[in-house]
């Protein structure tokens, strides 16, 4: 391309991107999934380019879309032993989860035509936020079952919450916050006996656990009673963002996820997923990558991921004042303060992750959480390990160790007096944008321009003491301002 204006525009984008966290090289341990293979990125780029202007809305006009979807769905079903499973390709994990809920809700309604109440979703506290979103969008009650401090949930506790109102039980393989695989094998068959659908959220695990090797509990379609499963190709399928697979054991469940109308004057609409017009670029990239890697390629990459995960978990175990939370299976884990650390020798995970970030590595803080009817969950730092991590593990381990040395003994930031000092934080009245801005300003989080804090520990401390609805409004305001002038 030689057009000068076009070159200048691209140069400007390069400048904008310079401030982003690096998406390749293993410096960020969440959000991005780096196989460490340049050929995969190049392949994805070229595949996406070939379908740049395709509209996935209509697979009868663009037959390549249906073909690529069939291949990606077939690959996904094969690795999770869904021999008769059917599926859809969505724009990501959230959309897959939303549609699993919509399908279960509509099938529940079809079976309970007389019902006047709201159907429910039963799930452990650790279930992904996408199910909170689904419950709110689609008017279901989310019935959260407390987990232990180690992130595990009892199958009996989940089943005890199930009733005639339950449209769906959700279990994860693994859950995001703690990397624990929920008791799929104990839940799904018993849910089935009650006539309740069971979704396995394998958004993050779906493309990696099948290749992990020994030592995992059963979690896939070999467990009777699993009715749907989500697997994000844009995580351990190494695709660019915008592609996930939602599998159903039953064709009618897939039909119930879709939308059709012939009741308007335009073209007859059939949308198997939530979008209308949709890009095929991420699908083509995922298709090409999965064709290229195949099960062998994914097995090799997973071996690197597993090795790096075990090394890093060992590093954490060796750091005084920290420990891995619970007993995760797979490539995710959370790090918490060691409750048995000697007095004054504990490491606060939030201040630790801020310090690790200053040393050049981005880990993800997770605030502590009070559970209804269960133990408080500790503040943690989340790590998602990818194949590229294997190549940089020593440097990362050094940063983790040094950061702990630098912050050891610092007490957690305590903002528990804040709601008393700032009554607006406690009131139930909904906040409008102006009122939310005032509170953010009082907290030093809103200036004239966009304001994002350098350190996240104070923000986490805030979230730990402010009632959830208020915290949600404040974060919404903070983020909304980022692209407003
Ligand atoms: C990532 C993830 C999701 C949501 O996926 P997005 O692709 O971010 O929309 C859902 N469940 C789990 C367990 C996840 O890790």
TrEMBL record:
The lineage of its organism: Bacteria, Bacillati, Actinomycetota, Actinomycetes, Mycobacteriales. This is Putative lyase. Belongs to the group II decarboxylase family. Sphingosine-1-phosphate lyase subfamily. GO terms for molecular function: aromatic-L-amino-acid decarboxylase activity; pyridoxal phosphate binding. SUPFAM superfamilies: PLP-dependent transferases. PANTHER family: PTHR42735, SPHINGOSINE-1-PHOSPHATE LYASE 1. GO terms for biological process: carboxylic acid metabolic process. Keywords: Lyase, Pyridoxal phosphate. The modification N6-(pyridoxal phosphate)lysine is found at residue 235. Pfam families: Pyridoxal_deC. It comes from Gordonia amarae NBRC 15530. Its cofactor is pyridoxal 5'-phosphate. Gene3D superfamilies: Aspartate Aminotransferase, domain 1, Type I PLP-dependent aspartate aminotransferase-like (Major domain). Transmembrane segments: none annotated.
């Amino acid at each position: 391309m030689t057009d000068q204006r076009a070159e200048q525009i691209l140069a400007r984008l390069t400048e904008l991107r310079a401030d982003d966290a690096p998406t390749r090289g293993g410096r960020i341990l969440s959000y991005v999934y780096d196989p460490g293979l340049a050929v995969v990125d190049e392949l994805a780029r070229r595949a996406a380019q070939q379908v740049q202007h395709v509209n996935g809305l209509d697979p009868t006009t663009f037959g390549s879309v249906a073909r690529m979807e069939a291949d990606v769905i077939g690959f996904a079903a094969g690795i999770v032993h869904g021999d008769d499973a059917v599926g859809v390709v969505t724009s990501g994990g959230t959309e897959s989860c939303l549609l699993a809920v919509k399908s279960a809700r509509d099938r529940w309604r079809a079976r309970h035509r007389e019902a006047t109440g709201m159907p429910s979703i039963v799930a452990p506290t650790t279930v992904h936020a996408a199910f909170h979103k689904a419950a709110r969008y689609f008017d279901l009650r989310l019935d959260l079952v407390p987990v232990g401090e180690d992130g595990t949930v009892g199958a009996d506790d989940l089943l005890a919450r199930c009733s005639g109102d339950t449209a769906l039980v959700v279990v994860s393989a693994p859950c995001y916050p703690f990397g624990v695989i929920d008791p799929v094998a104990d839940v799904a068959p018993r849910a089935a006996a009650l006539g309740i659908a069971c979704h396995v959220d394998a958004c993050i695990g779906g493309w990696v656990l099948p290749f992990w090797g020994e030592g995992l509990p059963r979690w896939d379609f070999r467990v009777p009673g699993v009715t749907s499963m989500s697997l994000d190709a844009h995580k351990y399928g190494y695709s660019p963002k915008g592609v996930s697979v939602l599998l159903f054991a039953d064709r009618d469940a897939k039909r119930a996820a879709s939308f059709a109308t012939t009741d308007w004057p335009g073209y007859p609409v059939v949308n198997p997923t939530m979008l209308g017009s949709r890009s095929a670029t991420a699908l083509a990239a995922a298709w090409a990558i999965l064709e290229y890697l195949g099960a062998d390629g994914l097995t090799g990459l997973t071996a690197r991921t597993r090795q790096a995960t075990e090394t890093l978990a060992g590093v954490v175990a060796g750091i005084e004042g920290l420990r891995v939370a619970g007993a995760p299976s797979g490539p995710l884990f959370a790090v918490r303060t060691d409750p048995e650390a000697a007095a004054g020798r504990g490491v606060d995970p939030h201040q630790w992750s801020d310090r690790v970030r200053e040393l050049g590595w981005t880990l993800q803080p997770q605030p502590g959480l009070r559970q209804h009817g269960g133990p408080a969950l500790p503040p943690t730092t989340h790590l998602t390990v990818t194949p590229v991590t294997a190549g940089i593990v020593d440097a990362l381990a050094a940063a983790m160790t040094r950061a702990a040395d630098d912050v050891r003994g610092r007490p957690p930031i305590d903002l528990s007096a804040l709601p008393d000092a700032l009554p607006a934080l406690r009131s139930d009245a909904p906040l409008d944008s102006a009122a939310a801005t005032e509170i953010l300003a009082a907290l030093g989080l809103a200036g004239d321009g966009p304001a994002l804090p350098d350190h996240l520990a104070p923000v986490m401390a805030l979230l730990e003491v402010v009632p959830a609805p208020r915290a949600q409004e404040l974060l919404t305001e903070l983020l909304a301002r980022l692209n407003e002038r």
